[in-house]
Amino acid sequence: MKKMIMLFILCFSFSFADTVWLAAGTSASVDLGSGYYGGDVDLDDGGLEIGYTRMLKQDGKMGWGLGGTYHLAAMGEDGFEAKFLTLYGLGTHSLSNEMGVWFGLGLGLPQGDIDEGDAGLAYSFGVMYNLNEKMILGLGYTVNSTSISESGYSQDFDFSRMTFNFGYRM
After folding, report:
1. What is the Cα–Cα distance from 70 to 72, expressed in whole angstroms?
2. Cβ contact 122:144 at 8 Å
3. pLDDT per residue over 139-151, tens digit each?
4. 45 and 75 in contact (C-beta within 8 Å)?
5. What is the pLDDT of residue 148?
């Protein structure tokens, strides 16, 4: 059901197209919190995400918008797959005509092998470079948090990764 709702939102959003982007994650890791299985685990696959951003307001160098992402390829290793469907608010700040920074804050819904997990905080930040009026390259850092409860015991997870982003303004 979650996937159907997200697909509907994405399809509806394309009728008001702004920026569609693709992000390839690298250096993925999961922080298992301080519970029984605590510690950091490095994952082999950083994932591949597709996203959509709709800028709502541009005021001088500052911009505000809404967006969403979905993992096309999961983070994970050895048969373990962690994906997220993320809805977020976005803030941007132009440093020059070509360069800018961004910050996203939202809600991540776990998918894949962690779909039993609770929705959690998702945040990201990074830099972007405008290649021209239509194309953008960027480098970012993204974290998705979730908590999984089993037999009265709860474990927190923070999935983090660096991303290389390519965006296209419609």
Report:
1. 6
2. yes
3. 999 999 999 887 7
4. yes
5. 85
